[in-house]
Design goal:
By secondary structure, the protein is α/β, with parallel strands linked by helices. The protein has a single domain, classed as YbaK protein. The chain is built from seven helices and ten strands.
């Protein structure tokens, strides 16, 4: 069971969390629809290579990773997306593409979009395409110590909503 390692880690650290089991979903939008959790409240982990080293970029599921912002924020020479083939062996206890944003479990740095740091809770894949974990953001930050920076751009739907709201005001 992929979620076991994560649950043991959270339990060992006395963290309160909820495991949400859902039907199989492979995209953040699919998970949001099935679980009735808005996409901006679900964190997705995007694997990147920063100056040749593997890392996790964690952003709201409704947004897109801004590679230039990540590169600039880290003062890195190069930042690129990593293919599933390139990281499949890094997460032996996870289904491919469903790794939780706990780089501390896999000896990987984690870079988190600042928008997620403003939420009371964070929800994310728990190692499988059928399980989501939700816990207090402060607990996640305490265990993971992510480097927080602005690394995501708004989706087209978010921009439309922002324009709609600003036109009303």
């Amino acid at each position: 069971m992929p979620v076991q390692r994560l649950k043991e880690f959270l339990d060992k650290n006395n963290i309160r969390y909820v495991v949400i089991t859902h039907s199989r979903a492979y995209t953040a939008a699919g998970i949001a629809a099935i679980t009735h959790i808005p996409g901006n409240e679900i964190a997705k982990t995007v694997m990147v290579r920063i100056d040749g080293k593997l890392a996790m970029a964690v952003i709201p599921a409704s947004r897109h990773l801004d590679l230039d912002a990540l590169r600039t924020g880290l003062r890195a020479t190069s930042v690129s997306l990593v293919t599933e083939k390139e990281f499949e062996n890094s997460f032996p206890d996870c289904e491919l593409g469903a790794m939780p944003p706990f780089g501390v479990l896999y000896d990987l740095p984690v870079y988190l979009d600042e928008k997620l740091s403003k939420d009371l809770e964070i929800a994310f894949n728990a190692g499988s395409h059928r399980e989501l974990v939700r816990l207090a953001y402060k607990d996640f930050a305490h265990l993971q110590h992510p480097q927080v920076m602005q690394i995501a751009t708004s989706s087209a739907a978010e921009r439309r909503e922002e324009q709609r709201v600003s036109s009303i005001l």
